[in-house]
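FORM 12-B: Structure-to-Sequence Request
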């Protein structure tokens, strides 16, 4: 099968890594073929030229920046990379929580100034026994929940249906979001960006959180009302935030979020790991073989 790895202005990884991996799995992969001449295209982001391809695969789980309806109208099969990020994102969130609890960010900041200075005695805490609310219990959320549970935290979650999840003590539906976040030391966002989740964490949700609570966003920036978050941080009604997803991206230099000592800003990299291209490649190979057999691909969006 002929596969185009469609290059990008800011690719997540070197496209040639994926080309080489797909070739090692027996696919005719390249970066130098027009989409219309391919059996499938792997996309780092949307390009209208991809509408000429029979099949497009997004390297990300989120596809809010892809015009899914236009793919449908053009007769293009569109698949995404959901299901491969639970470990990396889960570990990133655990790292953020541990950083805040053990005050590692403050010591790193002081290291730049060569300052040997401890935080106040009552600033540090342990995650063991603390409560985390994971908003969204798909692959990402379950990956987060499993790792925070292993650190001794009590996990509650929010999802559309109240069905139980391993390692999650209680599951709330979205209409009970305020109740779900009330007692949590960490509120972790792992939901996809949809009409329903845009602005989900607003001033009211932030007000429902504990004053010593931290918001962790590894979803999409638009899920959080950033003006309301800045206000909550300035007023001290939440303790801090770890923000891997922001609106817009890159975060402008004049954003006040850069300046809060209890805010960690990372450049949308929570899912990144050195074998990411292989995980994407495995999905592409599996779907190429399914399409060869005239079977429906996995992770089909449209």
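FORM 12-B RESPONSE
SEQUENCE OUT:
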């Amino acid at each position: 099968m002929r596969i185009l790895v469609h290059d990008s202005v800011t690719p997540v990884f070197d496209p040639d890594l994926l080309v080489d991996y797909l070739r090692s799995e027996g696919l005719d992969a390249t970066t130098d073929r027009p989409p219309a001449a391919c059996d499938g295209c792997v996309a780092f982001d949307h390009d209208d030229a991809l509408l000429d391809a029979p099949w497009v695969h997004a390297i990300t789980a989120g596809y809010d920046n892809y015009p899914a309806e236009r793919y449908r109208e053009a007769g293009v099969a569109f698949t995404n990379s959901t299901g491969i990020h639970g470990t990396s994102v889960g570990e990133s969130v655990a790292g953020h929580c541990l950083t805040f609890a053990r005050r590692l960010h403050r010591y790193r900041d002081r290291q730049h100034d060569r300052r040997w200075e401890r935080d106040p005695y009552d600033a540090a805490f342990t995650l063991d026994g603390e409560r985390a609310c994971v908003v969204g219990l798909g692959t990402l959320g379950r990956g987060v929940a499993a790792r925070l549970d292993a650190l001794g935290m009590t996990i509650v979650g929010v999802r559309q249906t109240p069905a139980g999840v391993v390692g999650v003590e209680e599951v709330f539906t979205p209409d009970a979001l305020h109740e779900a976040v009330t007692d949590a030391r960490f509120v972790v966002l792992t939901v996809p960006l949809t009409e329903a989740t845009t602005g989900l964490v607003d001033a009211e949700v932030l007000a429902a959180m504990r004053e010593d609570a931290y918001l962790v966003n590894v979803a999409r920036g638009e899920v959080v009302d950033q003006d309301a978050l800045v206000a909550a941080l300035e007023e001290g009604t939440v303790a801090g935030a770890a923000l891997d997803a922001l609106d817009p991206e890159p975060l402008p230099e004049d954003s006040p979020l850069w300046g809060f000592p209890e805010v960690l800003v990372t450049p949308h990299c929570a899912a990144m790991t050195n074998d990411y291209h292989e995980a994407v490649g495995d999905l592409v190979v599996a779907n190429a073989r399914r399409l060869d057999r005239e079977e429906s691909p996995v992770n089909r969006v449209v």
